[in-house]
């Protein structure tokens, strides 16, 4: 298990250059780590032994029956009106004379005939939990993979050796001019860059909602309200219904006269001790993650629609930035340019970021001045 976890150390490692936000990281870092750790624990026999062990009268075939029940699944009998039945036969003689033994006998007969109405619930998910967790980890990493492919290391090239606490010697006039030229002559490439990132954020939201639906289907419709049910029901835990620790298995074989014989087996499912906790944690986390993602996407829409808010975001990256310069600049640049500057502000040295803002402001002023000096006939053209 340690070997498996060591292969994912890159997820825990802090990045030198940030190309996304903290909500994005919750999807491809924290959530992926949760699924990988859970899957590793479920497949670790050194801590929890065999995943299934069945007790049957045919001990010579125990290993075969264990394998059969592991492949074909186990089941429990859900007595839906168990509480009502116990209430009926509890203290049966505490009634008036006309409701004595006759009524009590009728209630006991109802208890006997109730078995035909019992619902069989299969645990066919049991052997697939660790595989599903690995699949979900891959799906949560998919938006990150797509974004890294589209991003292409652009931000890392822009901030290379410029993110430290000290201003490096390479930050000279030539470097400033090259960076300014790139920022001001991108021909709407920054807008496409920002739209790609927004698309990956939408992928995160769609994915987490899909994951909740997937787990609900995987558990036979028991996941969507799993946490709510546990919080509201006190006397009969829904964990025992969804994740039983002991279940039945029916094994069929051919007898000496070629007739089909069935063997009853009572199977212990030790991994359900973990499953019931894991799925409760996932229920809480996935719903919380979906809510946080929705809130942040609404915030993203507000930033797109309200330019004045963008200036405050850029100012927050450096205390050396003049507010009036940023506000004038925001009126000229589009959302894509702001998006790139915002990411630069998260990665660059604050003094260097302030210099970039000054250079952009000066460049925009020069463009406006040169535009004013043009003859009227040129402007009309």
TrEMBL record:
A GO term from the CC aspect: gap junction
Stated family: Belongs to the pannexin family.
Pfam families (alphabetical): Innexin (PF00876)
Topology of this chain in the membrane: Multi-pass membrane protein
Entry-linked InterPro entries: Innexin
PANTHER family: INNEXIN (PTHR11893), INNEXIN INX2 (PTHR11893:SF41)
Coiled coil: none
An individual GO BP term: monoatomic ion transmembrane transport
Keyword line: Cell junction, Cell membrane, Gap junction, Ion channel, Ion transport, Membrane, Transmembrane, Transmembrane helix, Transport
Subcellular location(s) per record: Cell junction, Gap junction; Cell membrane
Function: Structural component of the gap junctions.
Protein name per its UniProtKB record: Innexin
Gene that this polypeptide is encoded by: inx
Regions crossing the membrane: 125-147, 191-210, 217-236, 278-299
